[in-house]
């Protein structure tokens, strides 16, 4: 089937951003001719396709929440928020957005991603290299862990935790020790995708918001290859308005009900969507 013009535009925009990211001051240097001559032949990369969706329902969302993490587990919606002095983790009633339970992430920490594994929640902070463990029932802090670099997004596949740090690299962590087991690079058409932010696990694949854009990438957890791209521009217009900070951020999959939820920073709504071609 021939791709639509919109599909090509979305994918091209994503790839343009990744090419620019790899050409910055942190790009690797070296003898490219020598490297090319000695490099093994690889298969031609496959470009991602466009993942479309329909909106099934919308729910109220706290317009003061600088959303960093979102998850749905056991019939409950959980969210983590950022900004120093406003950071925390919370349990939210889906129907009206009311905060039912919460714990504060105190200054100087800037809260970031959140994931839940069993009766334990894990959250990370932006630049402080500090993460927290929480009892998912009482919301009491039960421990801390450290990591290098920045903390952005978190999710899990039921066994391992995946963590993003704003680069194209995703870390796979052992939930007991929170040590890195392996890493992989998110790539679209063979190019690394920068600014990988909030993460979600759905049907054997990872989903991620790409910071400052309206795009969600769906990629393979082994190779990091992006399979498809979802454009949330219209939802941002409906719920984020003209606020430049109100970017899409927050993906939650309800495995039991096979429902997918998305929202954004300072959005007035949380959307239940039905994806197609993802």
Write up what this structure looks like.
Keywords: Signal, Transferase. One of its GO terms (molecular function) is glutaminyl-peptide cyclotransferase activity. It is a single chain. The chain has 278 residues and is mostly beta strands. It contains three helices and 22 strands. The protein has helices spanning 5-22, 32-38, 233-239, and strands at residues 49-60, 67-73, 76-81, 88-92, 99-104, 111-117, 120-125, 130-135, 141-146, 154-156, 161-164, 169-173, 180-185, 187-188, 191-192, 196-202, 205-210, 215-219, 226-231, 248-254, 259-264, 269-276. The strands form five sheets. It has an eight-stranded mixed sheet with strand order 16-17-18-19-1-22-21-20. A hairpin with a 6-residue loop joins strand 18 and strand 19. The longest helix is centred in the N-terminal third of the chain and has 18 residues, at 5-22. It starts with a helix and ends with a strand.
In short:
Helix content is 12%, strand content 46%. The protein is built from 3 helices and 22 strands.
Write the layout of secondary structure elements.
Layout lengths: L4 H18 L9 H7 L10 E12 L6 E7 L2 E6 L6 E5 L6 E6 L6 E7 L2 E6 L4 E6 L5 E6 L7 E3 L4 E4 L4 E5 L6 E6 L1 E2 L2 E2 L3 E7 L2 E6 L4 E5 L6 E6 L1 H7 L8 E7 L4 E6 L4 E8 L2
Parallel strand pairs: 1-19
Antiparallel strand pairs: 1-22, 2-3, 3-4, 4-5, 6-7, 7-8, 8-9, 10-11, 11-12, 12-13, 14-15, 16-17, 17-18, 18-19, 20-21, 21-22
């Amino acid at each position: 089937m021939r791709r639509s013009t919109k599909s090509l535009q979305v994918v091209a925009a994503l790839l343009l951003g990744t090419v620019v990211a790899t050409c910055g001051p942190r790009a690797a240097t070296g003898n490219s001719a020598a490297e090319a001559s000695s490099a093994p032949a690889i298969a031609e990369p496959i470009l991602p396709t466009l993942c479309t969706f329909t909106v099934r329902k919308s729910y109220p969302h706290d317009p003061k929440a600088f959303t960093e993490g979102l998850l749905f587990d056991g019939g409950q919606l959980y969210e983590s928020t950022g900004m120093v002095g406003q950071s925390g983790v919370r349990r939210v009633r889906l129907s009206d957005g009311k905060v039912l339970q919460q714990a504060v992430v105190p200054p100087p920490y800037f809260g970031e991603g959140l994931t839940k594994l069993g009766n334990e929640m894990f959250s990370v902070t932006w630049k402080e290299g500090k993460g927290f463990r929480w009892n998912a029932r009482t919301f009491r802090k039960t421990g801390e862990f450290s990591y290098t670099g920045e903390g952005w997004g978190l999710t899990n596949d039921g066994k391992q935790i995946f963590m993003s740090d704003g680069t194209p690299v995703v870390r796979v962590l052992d939930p007991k020790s929170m040590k890195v087991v392996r890493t992989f690079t998110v790539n679209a058409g063979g190019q690394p995708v920068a600014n990988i932010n909030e993460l979600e696990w759905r049907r054997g694949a990872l989903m991620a918001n790409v910071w400052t854009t309206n795009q969600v990438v769906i990629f393979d957890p082994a190779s990091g290859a992006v399979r498809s791209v979802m454009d949330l521009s219209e939802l941002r217009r409906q719920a984020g308005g003209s606020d430049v900070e109100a970017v899409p951020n927050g993906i939650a999959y309800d495995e039991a009900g096979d429902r997918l939820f998305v929202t954004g920073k300072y959005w007035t709504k949380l959307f239940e969507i039905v994806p197609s071609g993802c």
